[in-house]
């Protein structure tokens, strides 16, 4: 795994914990945030309090269509190399997504974007750190599927964005272990 991926994981984890802390509950009576007319008002709970999933690994991206429909992506730790990880929030609990089969294979998802409840994209790579292939997944409202056009190439996708009519993914390419080059 590349060092910059670890740094991004640390930043995303810190932001998620900070946001979860804000959503942990109302302020205590008598605190400045709870006083009427105070400049700081209690934040309403916007989602689940801080929690962790029982799988060892890390999360690198999150996207949501509603308070009861969110996706988180990253990697699960294994002895040999990371495995692709996708979790889904249904409004009550997080669960691991295992279909299509690429979601349990070696690799990592680095980013996700949610356009609507029936249109989302996730990007990353399959394989090991020495034999990566780009990975792009699409959600159609019923199931995730691996996008094969453009065909996966030697490299990794690190970010993805989309609208209802178009989208972009970026990352790096490194054919045959050669030096890295930008990929769009």
Q: What's the total helix number?
A: 1
Low-confidence parts lasting 5 or more residues at pLDDT below 50? 1-45
Number of strands: 11
Q: How helical, in percent, are the residues?
A: 10-25%
Beta strand %: 35-45%
What radius of gyration results from the CA coordinates?
18 Å
User: What string, H for helix and E for strand, traces the elements in order?
Assistant: HEEEEEEEEEEE
- Main pleated-sheet profile: 4 strands, antiparallel
State the shape: globular
Strand line-up in the sheet with most strands: 1-2-3-4
Question: Which tags fit this structure?
Answer:
globular; 1 helix; four-stranded antiparallel sheet; 40% strand; 184 residues; mainly beta
Structure, described:
- The chain has one helix at 3-22; strands at residues 57-66, 69-76, 83-89, 94-96, 107-116, 119-126, 133-139, 144-146, 155-162, 167-173, 181-183.
- It is mainly beta and 184 residues long.
- The chain is built from 1 helix and 11 strands.
- The two termini are 21 Å apart.
Which helices and strands occur, and which strands form pairs?
Blueprint: H1 3-22, E1 57-66, E2 69-76, E3 83-89, E4 94-96, E5 107-116, E6 119-126, E7 133-139, E8 144-146, E9 155-162, E10 167-173, E11 181-183
Antiparallel strand pairs: 1-2, 2-3, 3-4, 5-6, 6-7, 7-8, 9-10, 10-11
Short description:
This protein is mostly beta strands and 184 residues long. The protein has one helix and eleven strands, in the order αβββββββββββ.
């Amino acid at each position: 795994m590349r060092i910059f991926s670890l740094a991004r994981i640390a930043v995303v984890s810190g932001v998620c914990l900070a946001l979860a802390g804000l959503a942990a509950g109302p302020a205590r009576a008598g605190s400045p945030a709870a006083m009427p007319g105070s400049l700081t008002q209690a934040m309403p709970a916007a989602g689940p309090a801080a929690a962790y999933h029982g799988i060892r690994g890390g999360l690198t991206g999150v996207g949501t269509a509603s308070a009861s429909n969110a996706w988180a992506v990253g990697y699960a730790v294994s002895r040999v190399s990371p495995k692709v990880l996708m979790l889904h929030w249904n409004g009550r609990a997080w669960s691991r997504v295992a279909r299509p089969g690429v979601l349990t294979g070696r690799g990592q998802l680095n980013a996700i974007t949610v356009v609507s409840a029936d249109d989302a994209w996730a990007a990353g790579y399959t394989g090991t750190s020495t034999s990566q292939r780009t990975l792009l997944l699409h959600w159609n409202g019923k199931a995730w599927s691996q996008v094969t056009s453009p065909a996966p190439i030697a490299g990794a996708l690190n970010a993805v964005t989309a609208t209802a009519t178009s989208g972009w993914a970026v990352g790096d390419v490194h054919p045959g272990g050669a030096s890295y080059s930008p990929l769009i």
